[in-house]
Amino acid sequence: MSQRLPVTIAALIAFASLSSPVGSRAYGADTRPNILIILADDLGRADYSAYGTKDVRTPNIDRLFRGGMTFENFYANSCVCSPTRAALLTGCYPDRVGVPGVIRHPPSNSWGYLAPSASLLPQVLKASGYHSTIVGKWHLGLEAPNTPCDRGFDAFHGFLGDMMDDYLTHRRGGVNYMRSDRDVIDPKGHATDLFTQWACDAITDRARAEQPFLLYVAYNAPHDPLQPPQEWLDRVRKREPEMANNRAKLVALIEHMDEGIGQIVQTLEKSGIAENTLVLFTSDNGGLLNSGANDGPYRSGKTHMYEGGLRVPFAAYWPKHIAPGSVTPRVALTMDTFATVAEAAGVAVPPGVDGVSFLPTLLGRDQPEADRALYFVYREGGVRLGRRTQAVRKGDWKLVLDDPFGPPELFNLKADPRETTNVMLQQRAVFNELATLLRDMTQRAGAVPWQPPLRP
Question: If we measure between CA atoms, which residue out of 372, 400, 433 comes closest to residue 3?
């Protein structure tokens, strides 16, 4: 594993002068790509129809997969929300930037604090002249200095918190966390529709500017509560009358989000910038089984370190740059998106980033598999008493600590992709190697506080 330190603001100054836009080198002068990242919330590995799932219809998500590249082996950095979002925006393992668990209200049940030293993707892109907007769910801090506009985004239209108690009233524990930049707002409408409209508005606005942009659209769908608009639920029930109630609501939430994604892509096209926009689509973790999620053939789901909690959909769509219908077996993580976007934008990846760019893979070039161990973490309260669950993968081997009070498990994912047989006792040398990697990563992450400083 890398021994580099977290990215710092000071480091940005040192490398900014070394940056040269990839657009001026490879894609024509002044045509650096716009970046659109679409993040679903708790979308199961198999919960889109291009996967082959028959009871859900997602033509717009399918278009991204069929018109671009599908990653068969893409992992979220954690089995829950905040850590994966921290990894996406910093390019680092989440506990190395202070976010091993879910950031929540109230503070007594919050398990992370985004490190002040961490530099976020919008800060890095700003060095190359990019404008950055986030629409939707933030989930990395509820107040300054850890709100989007404090951490590098030029514009924010969305929700600061973890989950909404209601898709229509947009509250969490009775508190309104909806914001326009730093201002409290109280809009009317279903959250999915609001986020879609705000994303389309942002594209229309930025298309007029002579400046490349990053737009990060973080839906809170299909996270519970399972509260789709009634007309979307009626469509699913009419089509699938035997479907279980929770599954029907979840599918309706997904299909409603899919319609919004279609509107966003259409806005890119109407604005004339679709061919110069790299679109990345994924989920923050696996689907929640109690909500009826489909995580494919893999074991378990959200909040668990098994494959069902960590494997997520991933598509990259970039007309005339990424071959339609292409598929890669490359193993990648959410944090790799940071380095990939930076390379596409022509910005040098700053020191301390753990992620590895997969841009060559997207462009159809030969790219050896990264020789690295992959680390996953989740700290939680409740019955877990604030303890961590963890996993590490190296090659085909994966060491899992899914129960903080139980024994570790060792699986060979090539021979046993469903993680049915613990071979720890039979493979002591492999176990010892992975246990050492896990210990080393835990010690590195331990240098970064994950609680806010005490106030006088």
Answer: 372
Question: d(Cα 35, Cα 278) in Å, to the nearest integer?
Answer: 5
Catalytic entry in 79, 92, 131, 139: 139
Q: Which of 133, 200, 136 is nearest to 163 (CA)?
A: 136
Q: Tokens 């005339």 label which residue?
A: 320
Which two three-digit tokens encode residue 234? 């009626």
Catalytic residue among 81, 157, 200, 304: 81
At residue 106, the pLDDT reads 86
C-alpha distances out from residue 334 to 150, 230, 245, 374, Å:
23, 33, 31, 11
- What is the C-alpha separation between 279 and 397, in angstroms, rounded? 31
Which of the 8 DSSP states describes residue 399?
E
CA nearest neighbour of 376 among 433, 321, 428, 437: 437
DSSP 53: -
Tens-digit pLDDT profile for residues 315-334: 999 999 999 999 999 999 99
The answer to whether 390 and 445 are in contact (CB under 8 A) is no
81 is catalytic: yes
Which token pair is 251?
A: 């599918």
Q: Residue 421 in 3-state DSSP?
A: coil
Mean pLDDT of 78-96: 98
Question: Could you give all domains of the chain from N- to C-terminal order, each with its CATH number?
Answer: 34-373 (3.40.720.10), 375-445 (3.30.1120.10)
Residue type, 166: D
Q: Are 74 and 330 in contact (CB under 8 A)?
A: no
Q: In this predicted model, what pLDDT tens digit does every residue of 350-383 receive, in sequence order?
A: 899 999 999 999 999 999 999 999 999 999 999 9
Contact (Cβ atoms closer than 8 angstroms) between residue 1 and residue 375: yes
**439-446 average pLDDT score:** 96
Which three-class secondary structure state does DSSP give residue 218?
Answer: strand
Instruction: Write down the pLDDT at residue 456.
Output: 56
pTM of the full predicted structure?
Answer: 0.93
Chain CA centroid to CA 199, Å: 17
Residue 139 is among the residues annotated as catalytic for this protein: yes
pLDDT band at 105 (very low <50, low <70, confident <90, very high): confident
Strands 277-283 and 34-40: parallel
